[in-house]
TrEMBL record:
This protein's name: Flagellar basal-body rod protein FlgC
Keyword Ribosomal protein: no
Pfam family, one: Flg_bbr_C
UniProt source species: Pseudaminobacter salicylatoxidans
Domain Flagellar basal-body/hook protein C-terminal, first and last residues per copy: 90-133
Top-level taxonomy: Bacteria, Pseudomonadati, Pseudomonadota, Alphaproteobacteria, Hyphomicrobiales
A GO-annotated cellular component: bacterial-type flagellum basal body, rod
Family from the record: Belongs to the flagella basal body rod proteins family.
Localization terms from the record: Bacterial flagellum basal body
Annotated ranges, domain Flagellar basal body rod protein N-terminal: 8-35
Domain of life: Bacteria
Alphabetical GO biological process terms: bacterial-type flagellum-dependent swarming motility
Primary location group: other
Quaternary structure, from the entry: The basal body constitutes a major portion of the flagellar organelle and consists of four rings (L,P,S, and M) mounted on a central rod. The rod consists of about 26 subunits of FlgG in the distal portion, and FlgB, FlgC and FlgF are thought to build up the proximal portion of the rod with about 6 subunits each.
Length: 139
């Protein structure tokens, strides 16, 4: 496989991985206030994305993929909300372990990584088009 095709495959794997990361961040943000529905029940648990690099022998380069989507095992913060449906006997409700600022930072980073991979795809596509144009001119 030629270098430009390999470049496209590597960038495409980055686009796919960052898309999954953005989906998980969006899910975390959407559930940042999702508590349990019964007294003392656990709320939404933050998800995290684990990436892995994998050698793609067909292109001779490492690609990235989502190895797994795990649950954040950090403690749930509690809030005193005695009238809430998920409040325990003392009036405390377990809240999701989602920090909106952390999620926004993750979203920004994933978005920038996605855009960088998209630029690589555009540049490779332009180089392929220029190569085809040069080859047409030689005939």
């Amino acid at each position: 496989m030629d270098a430009l095709s390999a470049t496209l495959k590597v960038a495409a794997s980055g686009l796919t991985a960052q898309s999954e990361r953005l989906r998980i961040v969006s899910e975390n943000l959407a559930n940042a206030q999702s508590t349990g529905s019964t007294p003392g029940s656990d709320p939404y648990q933050r998800k995290t994305v684990i990436f892995s690099a994998e050698l793609d022998r067909s292109v001779g380069a490492s690609t990235v993929n989502v190895a797994s989507v795990d649950r954040d095992r950090s403690a749930f913060p509690v809030e005193y909300l005695p009238g809430h449906e998920a409040a325990d006997e003392a009036g405390y409700v377990k809240m999701p372990n989602v920090n909106v600022l952390v999620e926004m930072a993750d979203m920004t980073e994933a978005n920038r990584s996605y855009e960088a991979n998209l630029q690589v795809v555009k540049q490779a596509r332009d180089l392929i088009s220029m190569t085809i144009d040069l080859m047409r001119g030689q005939s």
